[in-house]
Design the sequence.
């Protein structure tokens, strides 16, 4: 009997790049990885907020725009490369996202991956084109 996946399970599988059945062991390991990443991000955000407030206070808010722009860029870099890198490396080390494919299913899996890649490429190209049009100087 096939049970219907919950929305949370679909989000977890999409976020971690997991395919197939999400058993209890893998779910618990993904929760551990996510919780560790969240705790690191939470500590970083507390520390970086205190540092930015200290810098702004000592500077008498003269260069507040520059400080805030650097703060945002540093936070984005930390989240994208630090936390996402940790999640990718840890899931690969623990062999959580490996997908075993039977020899008879290789061709169908290749076709499926090509279809997904084409769909994602078209969506990315379309959204980039729309975003460039919206952000162009001539758009009113």
Sequence:
């Amino acid at each position: 009997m096939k049970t219907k996946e919950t929305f949370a399970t679909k989000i977890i599988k999409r976020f971690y790049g997991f395919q197939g059945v999400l058993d209890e062991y893998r779910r618990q390991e993904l929760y551990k990885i996510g919780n560790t990443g969240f705790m690191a991000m939470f500590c970083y955000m507390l520390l970086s907020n205190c540092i930015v407030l200290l810098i702004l206070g000592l500077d008498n808010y003269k260069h507040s725009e520059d400080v805030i722009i650097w703060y945002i860029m540093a936070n984005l870099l930390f989240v994208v490369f630090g936390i996402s890198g940790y999640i990718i490396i840890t899931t690969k080390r623990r062999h959580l996202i490996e997908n075993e494919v039977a020899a008879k299913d290789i061709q169908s899996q290749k076709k499926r991956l090509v279809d997904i890649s084409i769909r994602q490429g078209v969506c990315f190209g379309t959204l980039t084109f729309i975003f460039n049009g919206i952000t162009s100087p001539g758009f009113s």
In short: Residues 104-140 form one domain. The first helix runs from residue 7 to 16. The radius of gyration is 21 Å. The chain has two domains: 7-100, 104-140.
